[in-house]
From TrEMBL, chain A:
Family annotation (SUPFAM superfamilies): P-loop containing nucleoside triphosphate hydrolases (SSF52540)
Entries under InterPro entries matching the protein: AAA+_ATPase (IPR003593), ABC_transp_ATP-bind (IPR050319), ABC_transporter-like_ATP-bd (IPR003439), ABC_transporter-like_CS (IPR017871), Oligopep_ABC_C (IPR013563), P-loop_NTPase (IPR027417)
Keyword match Transport: yes
Protein's name in the database: Oligopeptide transport system ATP-binding protein
Domain ABC transporter, first and last residues per copy: 23-262
Family: Belongs to the ABC transporter superfamily.
Organism for this UniProt entry: Celeribacter persicus
Broad class of the protein's primary localization: membrane
GO terms of molecular function: ATP binding; ATP hydrolysis activity
Keywords carried by this UniProt record: ATP-binding, Nucleotide-binding, Transport
Gene Ontology terms: cellular component: plasma membrane
Subcellular locations according to the entry: Cell inner membrane
CDD domains reported in the protein's UniProt record: ABC_NikE_OppD_transporters (cd03257)
GO biological process: peptide transport; transmembrane transport
From TrEMBL, chain B:
All copies of domain ABC transporter, residue ranges: 9-260
Protein name: Peptide/nickel transport system ATP-binding protein/oligopeptide transport system ATP-binding protein
Organism this protein belongs to: Celeribacter persicus
Membrane topology: Peripheral membrane protein
One MF term in the entry's GO annotations: ATP hydrolysis activity
Annotated PANTHER family: DIPEPTIDE TRANSPORT ATP-BINDING PROTEIN DPPD (PTHR43297:SF2), OLIGOPEPTIDE TRANSPORT ATP-BINDING PROTEIN APPD (PTHR43297)
C-alpha cells in the first residue's frame, strides 16, 4: 500500500547504538556490572515507511525504541533524526526536537493520567510546545479526536470511562498533536483483544497515509508485524540479527534465530499448521548482563559452529537490503 | 477421539452471576458442554467472554459471594460438582482435576521450594511419605523436561525462567494423575519460542498420559495446532462448537467468521487490509434477552434483537447460536424447535 509513497530519504539513522544499564550492588552501591540491553544496533528508517522491530521479551527492542527517542541517555552511538544528530544532545536542548518525534506506549492504562480529561491529555503537548489560543487549542483537540475515531462528545471524560482500544486511540491522538514526523509505537496492540487489535492497526495505517508518518513498530507479534511493516529488523539479546524487507524476511529468513522464531509462531489454520516444521530452540535466552562469548545466539543455535563460540559475527549485506549477522553467511 | 465414550465431564446450563454494589454481572450464561476422555477441548474467546470464569465456576474456585453459581449440573464421574461440599471439592481439585494458570510466577509460592510445591499434592491427596513424594516429584520434573531434576527440586520459583516455571506448574497439575487437566491461557505469558516448547511438551504428555484437557486461550493459532474440538465463547455464552477443522473450514457463527478474518498469519496470504469487528464486546448487566453479538453483527436482523438464539445444529458435532443460516445464506425460517438435539446436551438446550 505504501510502496508507491515511500521515499528513499532516510529519516532516522541509528548507528552502533548501545544502551547499557549499570548494576549496583552492596552497601556502597558499587557498580558491579551492566545489563547490555542494547548492544550496538544500526539501521535506517526511510521517510513514510514502517520499520518493524521484533524479538522476544528481554531482547532490548523496547529499550531500543526509547533510546532512539532519547528517553534515556545513551551509552554509545549516534542517532540522526531528520538530519539532526541527537545522540548526545543534552535533555533541555532536546525539547525543541520533541514535536518531531513521538511515542505510543504499550499500556494505555498506565500511560494516561487518570486525573486528566481526554481533552487535557491530548492538549498537553500543545500547552508545552505550541502557542495557541484557548479556542484554537480546543479545535485542534477535537479534530485530533476525529482523526483517531473518538467521539467529540467524550472530550471531557476521563480515561477510565473508555475501553482499552479507545484508550489506545487517546494515546495515539496525543502522539499526533504536534504533527510529528516519526512515531515509535511500542507494542501498541499487545494489551488489546484480537478483535480490537485490527481496529488500532488499521487506524495506524490510515494515519500514516494521511499525515505521511514514519513508524518504528515494536512488537513481539510477528503476524501483525508482517501485516504492518515494510521492512523488519529482528533483535536477539541486544543485537539486530537480521534486517530485510517484509517479503524477504518472512519468505526467506536467513539467520537461524529468525528461522526458529518464525517457525514457532502458531498458524491459525489447522491444515497449514500441520505442515509447519518447527525448529525448537533448546534452553532460554542468556542474561544480557553476561552475554556468551562470540555470537550471542551460539548457546541455542541449531547450526552452531566452532567459530561462533569464539568470534562475534559482523552484520553483512547478503543481498540488497538484506542484512544478516551470522557466520554462516560470512564471505570474508 | 472416542466418539461414543461417556464424557468425563458434563456441564449443563451453568450460570455465574457476580453480585456487586454497582449491580450484577452475568459472566456465564447457560453454558453446556461435555469433555470426552482423552480429548483436548479448546475454549477460545476474548477477555470478558467468560471462558475462565466458566472453568473456575464448575470446580468451585469462584468465591461466593460475590458470585452465584447455578446450573442443571456438572457431572464429573458420577459426582455433581455443583452440589459437592467444599471438602469433596478439595479432594477432587489438584487430584482428579489439575490446573495450570496463565502466570506461573503468581501461581507458585515464592517462599517454598519447587520440590515442596510439587510434593504438596502428593502428600495431601496421595498420602505419600516424604521420600516417596520426593522420588515422584523428581520423576515429574523429568517428565516435563526439566534438566537436572534432582538438584532443581530444592530451587525456588524465582530461580526458574518463565518457560521452566510453567513446566513446574504442569508438573504440579499432573502430580496426582488427573483425569482432567484445565489449562487457562498457559502459554499466553510466554515468548513464542518458549510457547512452541510447551505446546510440544503437551503433545508428548497427552500421548503418554492420555488425560482429557480443557485448554483456554484467545490465540486461534494455538487452537489450530492443539485442539480436537473447540468451543467459541462470546458474552458469557458458547456461540459455536465444532471439531477443530470443521470450525476453521465452515465457521457458522458471524463472530467466529469475523474472528478468523481479523487474525493475520505469518505464512498464509497477507491481506492488504485487516478485517475489523466494529464496536466493543458487551458488558453483561442482565441475562441476555437478545443475541449478545447482534450490535456488532453484519448479519443481524429483527429477531436477533428480540430473542437470544439457541445453539442450532449445523453439521455433525457442530452447532452455532445464530439465527442466520450461512448454508442457506438467509435467516433461519424455523423457530427454536430445531435447536440442539445432541444426546449429551439433553436438558442443556436453552432457547431464549
Amino acid at each position: 500500500m505504501l510502496d508507491d509513497t515511500k521515499s528513499n530519504k532516510v529519516l532516522v539513522e541509528v548507528r552502533d547504538l548501545k544502551m547499557h544499564f549499570p548494576i549496583h550492588a552492596g552497601v556502597l552501591r558499587k557498580r558491579v556490572g551492566e545489563v547490555k540491553a542494547v548492544d550496538g544496533i544500526s539501521f535506517d528508517i526511510y521517510e513514510g515507511e514502517t520499520l518493524g522491530l521484533v524479538g522476544e521479551s528481554g531482547c532490548g527492542k523496547s529499550t531500543a525504541g526509547r533510546a532512539i527517542l532519547r528517553l534515556y541517555d545513551i551509552t554509545e552511538g549516534t542517532i540522526r533524526i531528520d538530519g539532526v544528530e541527537i545522540g548526545h544532545t543534552p535533555q533541555p536542548d532536546l525539547r525543541k526536537m520533541r514535536p518531531t518525534m513521538q511515542m505510543v506506549f504499550q499500556d494505555p492504562q498506565a500511560s494516561l493520567n487518570p486525573r486528566m480529561s481526554v481533552a487535557a491529555i491530548i492538549g498537553e503537548p500543545l500547552d508545552e510546545h505550541a502557542r495557541l489560543s484557548k479556542a484554537e487549542k480546543r479545535e485542534k483537540v477535537l479534530s485530533l479526536m476525529d482523526a483517531v475515531g473518538l467521539n467529540r462528545d467524550f472530550a471531557n471524560r476521563y480515561p477510565h470511562e473508555f475501553s482499552g482500544g479507545q484508550r489506545q486511540r487517546i494515546g495515539i491522538a496525543r502522539a499526533l498533536a504536534l504533527n510529528p514526523k516519526f512515531i515509535v509505537c511500542d507494542e501498541p496492540i499487545a494489551a488489546l483483544d484480537v478483535s480490537i487489535q485490527a481496529q488500532v492497526v488499521n487506524l495506524l495505517e490510515d494515519l500514516q497515509e494521511e499525515f505521511g508518518l514514519t513508524y518504528l513498530f515494536i512488537s513481539h507479534d510477528l503476524s501483525m508485524v508482517r501485516h504492518i511493516a515494510d521492512r523488519v529488523a529482528v533483535m536477539y539479546l541486544g543485537r539486530v540479527v537480521e534486517l530485510a524487507s517484509r517479503e524477504t524476511l518472512f519468505a526467506d529468513p536467513k539467520h537461524p534465530y529468525t528461522q526458529a522464531l518464525l517457525s514457532a509462531v502458531p498458524e491459525p489454520d489447522p491444515w497449514l499448521e500441520e505442515k509447519v516444521e518447527r525448529i525448537l530452540l533448546q534452553g532460554d535466552v542468556p542474561s544480557p548482563s553476561n552475554p556468551p562469548k562470540g555470537c550471542n545466539f551460539c548457546t541455542r543455535c541449531p547450526q552452531v559452529m566452532d567459530i561462533c563460540r569464539e568470534i562475534d559475527p559482523l552484520g553483512q549485506e547478503i543481498a540488497p537490503g538484506h542484512q544478516v549477522t551470522c557466520h554462516l553467511y560470512q564471505t570474508t | 477421539m472416542a466418539d461414543g465414550a461417556a464424557p468425563v465431564l458434563n456441564v449443563r446450563d451453568l450460570k455465574t452471576v457476580f453480585k456487586t454494589r454497582s449491580g450484577s454481572v452475568h459472566a456465564v450464561n447457560s453454558v453446556s458442554f461435555s469433555l470426552k476422555p482423552g480429548e483436548l477441548l479448546g475454549v477460545v474467546g476474548e477477555s470478558g467472554s467468560g471462558k475462565s470464569v466458566t472453568m473456575m465456576s464448575l470446580i468451585g474456585l469462584i468465591p461466593s459471594p460475590p458470585a452465584q453459581v447455578s446450573g442443571a449440573g456438572v457431572d464429573f464421574g458420577g459426582t455433581d460438582l455443583l452440589k459437592a461440599s467444599d471438602d469433596e471439592l478439595r479432594k477432587i481439585r489438584g487430584a482428579r482435576i489439575g490446573f495450570v494458570f496463565q502466570d506461573p510466577m503468581t501461581s507458585l509460592n515464592p517462599v517454598f521450594t519447587v520440590g515442596y510445591q510439587i510434593m504438596e499434592p502428593l502428600r495431601k491427596h496421595m498420602k505419600m511419605s516424604r521420600a516417596q513424594a520426593r522420588g515422584r516429584a523428581k520423576e515429574l520434573l523429568e517428565l516435563v523436561g526439566i534438566p537436572d531434576a534432582e538438584r532443581r527440586l530444592s530451587d525456588f520459583p524465582h530461580q526458574f525462567s518463565g518457560g521452566m516455571r510453567q513446566r513446574v506448574m504442569i508438573a504440579i497439575a499432573l502430580a496426582c494423575d488427573p483425569e482432567v487437566l484445565i489449562a487457562d491461557e498457559p502459554t499466553t505469558a510466554l515468548d513464542v519460542t518458549i510457547q512452541a516448547q510447551i505446546l510440544e511438551l503437551m503433545h508428548e504428555l497427552r500421548a503418554k498420559l492420555g488425560m482429557a484437557v480443557i485448554w483456554i486461550t484467545h490465540d486461534l493459532g494455538v487452537i489450530a495446532g492443539i485442539a480436537d474440538r473447540v468451543l467459541v465463547m462470546y458474552g458469557g455464552q458458547i456461540v459455536e462448537h465444532a471439531p477443530v477443522r470443521e470450525l476453521f473450514k465452515h465457521p457458522r457463527h458471524p463472530y467466529t467468521r469475523a474472528l478468523l478474518k481479523t487474525v493475520p498469519s505469518v505464512r498464509g496470504e497477507r491481506a492488504e487490509r485487516l478485517e475489523v469487528i466494529e464496536g466493543q464486546p458487551p458488558i453483561l448487566r442482565a441475562e441476555p434477552s437478545s443475541c449478545s453479538f447482534a450490535a456488532r453483527c453484519p448479519f443481524a436482523f429483527a429477531r436477533c434483537l428480540s430473542e437470544n438464539p439457541a445453539r442450532f445444529d449445523v453439521g455433525p458435532g457442530h452447532d452455532a447460536a445464530c439465527f442466520y443460516d450461512f448454508e442457506a445464506g438467509a435467516p433461519r425460517a424455523t423457530v427454536s424447535a430445531a435447536a440442539v438435539g445432541r444426546p449429551e446436551f439433553e436438558g442443556g438446550a436453552h432457547a431464549g
